[in-house]
Amino acid sequence: MVNLMNEMLKFFKALAILLRFGVCVAVCNAQPSDEELLEKAKAMETIIIDGIDKLGIPGAAFVVSRNGKVIYSGGFGNTTIASNLFHNPELVTEKTVFPVSSLTKNITAILVGALVDAGMLSFSDKVRKYLPDFFIANEELSAEFTVLDLISHRSGLKHFSADSLLQAGYEPDEIVRALRFMKQKPGEFRKKYGYQNVVFGIIGFVIEQATGRKYEDLVKEYIFDKMGMDFSSAIRLSAETGRFGHFKHMLSRFSHDRQRLGLWNAVINLGRSALSHKPKNIVVGHFKNGDKVIPLEEIGMFHKFPATSGVSLSAQDFAKWIEMLASGGTYRGTQIVSKETFKTLTSAMAEVKNIKDDDYSFIKSRYKREGMSYCAGIYRGVYFDNGKNEREILFHMGGIYGAASFLAVVPSEDIAVGVVVNVGGVSITLFAEYMVHQYLDMCLGYSKIDWVQKDIERRDYYKERQASYRASLAERNIAPMQDVGHYIGTYHAEIYGDVVATEERGELWLTNGIRKVRLRHLNGDTFEFPCMELMFCAFDADETATFIEDEYGNISALYLSGLSENDTIFKRR
Question: Quick one: 420 and 534 in the same domain?
């Protein structure tokens, strides 16, 4: 009897331990409450303010959503720097509009899904169904390319193919034509991940052909209007600041409206849109050269391929957008895309391989090296704490000329978070990414990382690299340049067309017919010029122009580091 009592006592003790353990597991794995998410979002305010001050970022917006509701949205800093002669700085609010650059790809992918649901096109449609002259790399690839291939970075081309033409100011038809000269290895189509801006951007032309409507109108009807995103834009921000700018924009598309609506209705539409337009408060994009923050003039680069980088959002609307993503394609009862379509868009399409351990974007302590993929307009991967506490994550970054952004959705916790800043360039800052990481770490109970300090260390790394490059120039055995007239001439390449070297007041200049730069002598027949003067790039390093002699000592070719797709050599005409 005593033994039986002892055994029963042991059983109940064990049961109590198991029950306590079960309660602990339930508590430890429980989702953070809305109140906890809001508390941590408010704790982020101090971190963000400290970060933008230390990193020289004029303005930022931070948003958090959960399935069915916005938890937090707020603006920080100013629309531009105080010393900007052309724009007065204003406080960033929930309604201030930021370019989100490549986050546009996520919005475009959802738009394509909505059009598929509406029966206007199919994911499996061949691109040539809508663009018969489409040609990329080779005939086999071009003939097989589909709508889904355009938005999933699985062409098999190198990263950023034809971007150099986009940045150097070439027009869309010239840029698309250059795709025929890109190289693609057999067997890499639909297997190898290669991030693209131009290839992805072609989807905008496809959906315009499929529907007979402008990309900006489709985004407004199928997304902005349905979700009440009243402070969003898919046109140049200069057309959003006042009625005159908006009138100029509407005038630029008048022939399209006339063809679609008829002359009289197009005239009415032009006048009505100009009179009814409500100006938006927008940020100015910025660049950093060393520690100096430089405001940038708006350029049309984003809108040459609007489907890849042309959307701008306020914090208020950004919060709505990520709320919809966390809700699986539905916004507060309104279906933006069907569940089936959303599943297709967020399914792995191209595996992201060979992520370096020192990759600043995908820090090893947080991103699992295996299993990361690009879907359609969004990445899928695993976010963890030094190999523990794994969470599946959907995310996308944006960062090009003057702006940077990042969004992430953690489905298991129903957390969606986003950050956008008005300074652009990977070499300049990853503040948007790192503030999303900071918030996720707080919510998931991960080990502490000072993400502001991480970004400072990145900045210092690039500054040291640039200083080292400059120091190395002084150590070179500098050879003199030849007479300026030796280099003058026209140089041609299939991809880029002509560039012309000229002499002005004894100095050597180079132009691609769009922009013009002065070449500073570097060593022998090699010259340098600021990247920003020829190309809208995110780096403050210089590019080089190297003139090449033939066997007779005559200049016969030119290599430009900034225009070097496929290691292009410009032949002298």
Answer: no
Euclidean distance between CA atoms 233 and 281, whole angstroms: 12
- Interatomic CA distance for residues 404 and 379, integer angstroms: 17
Distance from C-alpha of 300 to C-alpha of 516, rounded to nearest angstrom? 18
Q: What is the CATH number of the domain that holds 421?
A: 3.40.710.10
Task: Let me know whether 178 and 302 are in one domain.
Answer: yes
Nearest to 382 by CA among 416, 412, 405: 412
Q: Is 317 helix (H, G, I), strand (E, B) or coil?
A: helix
Shared domain check, 51 and 24:
no
* pLDDT (0 to 100) of residue 573: 95
Unique residue bearing structure tokens 């096109």: 121
Q: Is 122 left (phi over 0), alpha (psi -120 to 50) or beta?
A: beta
Cα dist from 289 to 16, 52, 87, 202, 320, whole Å: 63, 16, 20, 32, 34
Share of the chain residues as helix, strand and coil, in percent rounded to the nearest 5: 40, 25, 35
- From the number of C-beta atoms within 10 Å of its C-beta (0-12, 13-18, 19+), residue 154 rates as buried
- 505 and 415 together in one domain: no
| Structure-block tokens of residue 519 | 């070449």
* 75 domain-assigned: yes
Query: Is 355 buried (19+), middle (13-18) or exposed (0-12) by CB count in 10 A?
Result: middle
- The parent domain of residue 21 ranges over 1-30
Residue 538 near residue 289 (C-beta atoms within 8 A): no
Instruction: Give domain status of residue 535, yes or no.
Output: yes
Q: Answer yes or no: do 540 and 420 share one domain.
A: no
Binned average pLDDT, 10 residues per bin, the chain of 573 residues: 52 46 43 95 98 96 94 97 92 96 97 98 98 97 98 96 93 96 92 95 98 97 98 93 89 92 92 88 88 83 91 97 97 97 97 92 95 97 97 94 93 96 84 98 97 92 78 76 97 98 96 95 92 72 91 97 94 97
- In sequence order, which ranges of 179-262 are alpha helices (DSSP H)? 198-211, 215-219, 243-252, 254-261
Q: How many Å from the N-terminal Cα to the C-terminal Cα in the chain?
A: 107
Q: How many residues does the chain have?
A: 573
Hey, what are 564's tokens?
A: 């070097």
Q: Looking at the domain assignment, is residue 253 inside a domain?
A: no
Distance of CA 271 to the CA centre of its chain: 34
Same domain assignment for residues 370 and 384:
yes
CB-based contacts of 103, cutoff 8 Å, min separation 6: 311, 313, 396, 397, 398, 405, 406, 407, 420
148 is a domain residue: yes
CATH value at residue 490: 2.40.128.600
Range 540-557 burial, b when 16+ CB lie within 10 A, else e: bbbbbbbbeeeeeeebbb
pTM over the 0.90 mark: yes
CA 261 – CA 256 distance, rounded (Å):
8
Give CA–CA dist 99/490, Å, rounded.
38
